[in-house]
Amino acid sequence: MARIIAGTHGGRTVAVPAKGTRPTTDRVREALFARLDHDDLVDGVEVLDLYAGSGALGLEAASRGASRVVLVEAARQAAQVCRDNVTSLGLSRVVEVVPRRVEAYLASAPSRSGGFGLVFVDPPYEMGEDELARVLDALVAHLDEDDAVVVVERSTRSPAPTLPPALELWQTRTYGETALHLLHPATEPASDPATDPTAEPTPDGAADVPAHDHPQA
């Protein structure tokens, strides 16, 4: 069993599949969501949980105010556990379970709602780096392109994920054997006024200051 850490369903238990999954520990989820809540990245946001397992990450987001959560899980037993958890928590209006392979789901047409603002990617640790890179590349079309965060959970023994040009690393946090790589949309390099005819001149004495979509740790 796992448990919902906080929010409207804080303290409620979540069933986990008997085998075949690697649930994110309560400690790691608590630390991760403390970071996300601090930057207001959950409440009112559409959330996608890939390789959902028990659905604990997506269900935690729903408990903390996510407007919509999609759990994608291909394994039949795990997908049923997700459905059972959604039903027992009374979250069927907010949480949808999609029993499909992640690659097939990402190959489908993106949501018309504007894209997901928060995505959890928690594949098996044995997944190869090339395969993960393809998943991240396919994921880009499903993101809120202006303000999305992608959390990739890997072993600390694995290298940082290879990113498509549309994503960049925000920060990496480690908890024991778990590494969380937080990504967000890549910022476009500032144009050079000397070569960009559309750029407005900078007033004398003014300095260009790069903006960040999210605060740094």
Automatic annotation (TrEMBL):
SUPFAM superfamilies xrefs: S-adenosyl-L-methionine-dependent methyltransferases
Superkingdom of the organism of origin: Bacteria
InterPro entries the UniProt entry points to: RNA_MeTrfase_RsmD, SAM-dependent_MTases_sf
Pfam families the UniProt entry points to: Cons_hypoth95 (PF03602)
Gene Ontology biological process terms in this record: rRNA methylation
Stretches for region Disordered: 187-217
Molecular function terms from GO: methyltransferase activity
Ranges of biased composition (kind: Low complexity): 187-208
Keyword annotations: Methyltransferase, Transferase
NCBIfam families: 16S rRNA (guanine(966)-N(2))-methyltransferase RsmD (TIGR00095)
Protein name (record): 16S rRNA (Guanine(966)-N(2))-methyltransferase
Organism of origin: Serinibacter arcticus
Lineage: Bacteria, Bacillati, Actinomycetota, Actinomycetes, Micrococcales
